[in-house]
């Protein structure tokens, strides 16, 4: 590979390893989300242009390419207008950084700035599962398989508690009580604790999963084995697991999305509770929102059907069962991404 062909990926590496964390002070989650976006964009670009990833360069970036990527995401992954705008912002951020370091790239950046931002209707009802969709998803793990039992318990707990994904992965054995008045202590933003009661069905699946292991009180409930040691599971690992079950569910029902995000479990549980009569102040407390206005913005604008069909209690859905690169093979796209901080 010629040096000029590495320019794009060297710039990406500096962007993610130096600029975002050290100069801009971006958070871990922002950097992670920007990496996800750039991976999605580059994977789309190589297929769209019919080239190898290693051959992609700045001059390949056109308005048509970026707009096609955004349209693809909206159609294939059901991105909301807000998600679509965040993807565009991530791409623009990288090209702005690139243009600031190479004046010849300013024209590309300025062209990307002409792509319009989609308007986001304030108060629009958020994405969530229907009860039938959630049941279909939760029916995909094979309960005779130990890892599937873990994954099922994880998805059920994610839904039942309405926890953010990082909150779920922070739960330790000492934080759960599965006997009388079963509940889980969840530590949210600012390490603020909230006690969340859990359903009997959740208790059943957690017990069945935990019976497979001999865990200590300080062990994480959901973990992975790394060199023989139990370590906290990574959110990206959870996302990959969920995506696998989404594809399986889509094979059963083609209307089921092939990709969903972890936060939809939280949205869905909160919407199901609100839809079935739980007052907004209680939903707000249950979600761990510091301000009820946050809850109201997302959930209060329920549609007419939701208001008309509100019932007394939420349906228990879970009734289921280095810099030197000369010696590397740049046709290996996963290696290329790892070398330049995209992985």
UniProtKB/TrEMBL annotation:
Name of this protein: Tyrosine-type recombinase/integrase
Sequence ranges assigned to domain Tyr recombinase in this UniProt record: 124-312
Q: Does the keyword Cell wall biogenesis/degradation apply?
A: no
Biological processes per GO annotation: DNA integration; DNA recombination
Among the GO molecular function terms of this UniProt record, one is: DNA binding
Q: Name one Pfam family in it.
A: Phage_integrase
- Core-binding (CB) domain sequence ranges: 7-99
SUPFAM superfamilies, A to Z: DNA breaking-rejoining enzymes (SSF56349)
Please indicate if the UniProt record lists Zinc-finger as a keyword.
no
Q: Which PROSITE patterns match?
A: CB (PS51900), TYR_RECOMBINASE (PS51898)
Q: Which UniProt keywords apply?
A: DNA integration, DNA recombination, DNA-binding
Per its UniProt record, what InterPro entries does this chain match? CB, DNA_brk_join_enz, Integrase-like_cat_sf, Integrase_catalytic, Integrase_recombinase_N, Integrase_SAM-like_N, Tyrosine_recombinase_XerCD
């Amino acid at each position: 590979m010629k040096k000029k062909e590495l320019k794009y990926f060297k710039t990406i590496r500096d962007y993610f390893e130096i600029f975002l964390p050290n100069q801009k002070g971006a958070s871990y989650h922002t950097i992670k989300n920007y990496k996800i976006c750039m991976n999605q964009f580059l994977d789309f670009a190589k297929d769209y242009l019919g080239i190898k990833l290693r051959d992609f360069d700045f001059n390949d970036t056109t308005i048509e390419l970026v707009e096609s990527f955004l349209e693809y995401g909206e159609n294939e992954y059901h991105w909301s207008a807000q998600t679509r705008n965040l993807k565009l912002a991530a791409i623009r951020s990288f090209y702005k950084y690139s243009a600031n370091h190479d004046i010849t790239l300013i024209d590309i950046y300025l062209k990307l700035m002409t792509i319009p931002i989609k308007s986001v209707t304030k108060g629009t009802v958020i994405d969530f599962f229907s009860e039938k969709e959630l049941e279909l998803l939760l029916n995909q793990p094979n309960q005779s398989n130990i890892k599937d039992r873990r994954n099922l318990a994880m998805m059920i707990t994610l839904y039942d508690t309405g926890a953010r994904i990082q909150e779920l992965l922070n739960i330790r054995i000492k934080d759960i009580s599965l006997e009388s008045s079963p509940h889980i202590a969840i530590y949210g933003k600012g390490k603020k604790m909230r006690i969340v009661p859990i359903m009997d069905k959740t208790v059943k699946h957690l017990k069945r999963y935990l019976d497979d292991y001999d865990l200590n009180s300080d062990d994480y409930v959901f973990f992975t084995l790394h060199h023989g040691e139990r370590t906290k599971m990574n959110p990206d690992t959870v996302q990959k697991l969920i995506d696998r079950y989404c594809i399986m569910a889509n094979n059963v029902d083609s209307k089921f999305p092939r990709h969903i995000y972890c936060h939809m479990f939280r949205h869905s549980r909160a919407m199901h509770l609100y839809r079935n009569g739980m007052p907004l102040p209680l939903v707000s407390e249950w979600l761990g929102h510091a301000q009820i206005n946050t809850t109201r913005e997302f959930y209060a604008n329920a549609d007419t059907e939701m208001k008309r069909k509100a019932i007394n209690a939420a349906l228990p859905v879970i009734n289921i069962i280095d810099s030197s690169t000369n010696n590397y093979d740049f046709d290996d796209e996963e290696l290329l991404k790892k070398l330049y901080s995209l992985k």
